[in-house]
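Colleagues,

For the teaching module next term, I've prepared a clean inverse folding example: a structure given as tokens, and then the sequence designed for it. I'd like students to try predicting residues themselves before seeing the answer, so please don't circulate the second half yet.
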């Protein structure tokens, strides 16, 4: 079992809140993260992901609520909490005029990690990320993906119990994203608790549990499989050469709540797939729009999130 069984969570969050003037950025979040668990925060820009991460890391003070790291209060005992957590923000503060090794040593010194310990730890992490041949290269000369892997190594050099990653793979190429996640899986096996925020909803499905965040509130939190099981209605996948035309026509049809472009087609959120599939086929044929196939598919986390926002929108307008 990947997730370690433990009576007490590595991270416990209760009623966490933060306002900026009249805007409520985070509005009463509650969740726990177990040792050896990857917990994802998923949501659009402005959902409160980065503000939440900063409060978990202790670099921003909450207006209300509590964050406990291994039972240590982040606000009341910041120095003790600092030894248990590592925070990798969207733009990790690497020193570009230092080499890979020099950057790692700098962060090891910040956390007072003894030389033999950080050297062993760094060698293991660099080997796992394929960065060993680049130890003497300046950080300024690294690719975006390599900088992220170096940032992760620096964040892990003091062996934290909890790792906070704020959209760590944004702008990173697909191969580096895959390698980055392979490192996270190794950390999970070591019992490290991780909170990762991401705008990549396909990537979110790799997490053990997800919190779907919008306007500073958690809409739902559960495993990806259980979340998708809550999907209202169903998804019809239309494979076609004109996804925009298909989407525009479909949204004018009865029973179609939403349309999401995906690859070589469109995912349509419908109330009843058995009824709507022949209706959509007839409507497309009548408009001269060719559809190569219309089939029901399993919803993705992205489909679910869009459907939840669609369901919320009418209530917000009343």
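(Answer key — instructors only)
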């Amino acid at each position: 079992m990947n997730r370690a069984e433990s009576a007490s969570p590595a991270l416990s969050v209760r009623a966490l809140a933060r306002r900026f003037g009249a805007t409520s950025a985070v509005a009463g979040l509650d969740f726990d993260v177990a040792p050896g668990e990857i917990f994802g925060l998923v949501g659009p820009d402005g959902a409160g992901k980065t503000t939440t991460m900063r409060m978990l890391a202790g670099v921003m003070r909450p207006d209300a609520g509590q964050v406990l790291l291994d039972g240590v209060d982040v606000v009341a005992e910041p120095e003790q909490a600092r030894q248990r957590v590592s925070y990798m923000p969207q733009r990790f503060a690497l020193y570009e005029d230092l080499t890979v090794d020099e950057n790692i040593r700098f962060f090891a010194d910040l956390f007072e990690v003894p030389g033999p310990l950080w050297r062993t730890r760094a060698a293991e992490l660099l080997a796992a990320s394929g960065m060993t041949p680049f130890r003497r290269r300046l950080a300024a000369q690294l690719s975006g993906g390599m900088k992220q892997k170096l940032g992760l190594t620096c964040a892990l050099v003091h062996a934290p119990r909890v790792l906070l990653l704020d959209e760590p793979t944004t702008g990173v190429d697909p191969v580096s994203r895959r390698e980055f996640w392979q490192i996270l899986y190794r950390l999970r096996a070591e019992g490290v608790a991780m909170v990762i925020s991401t705008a990549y909803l396909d990537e979110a499905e790799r997490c053990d549990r997800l919190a779907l965040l919008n306007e500073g509130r958690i809409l739902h939190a559960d495993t990806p499989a259980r979340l998708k099981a809550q999907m209202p209605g169903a998804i019809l996948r239309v494979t076609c050469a004109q996804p925009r035309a298909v989407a525009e026509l479909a949204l004018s049809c009865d029973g179609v709540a939403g349309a999401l472009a995906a690859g070589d087609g469109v995912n349509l959120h419908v109330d009843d797939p058995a009824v709507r599939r022949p209706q959509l086929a007839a409507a497309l044929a009548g408009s001269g729009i060719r559809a190569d196939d219309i089939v029901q598919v399993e919803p993705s986390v992205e489909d679910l999130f869009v459907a939840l926002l669609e369901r919320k929108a009418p209530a917000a307008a009343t």
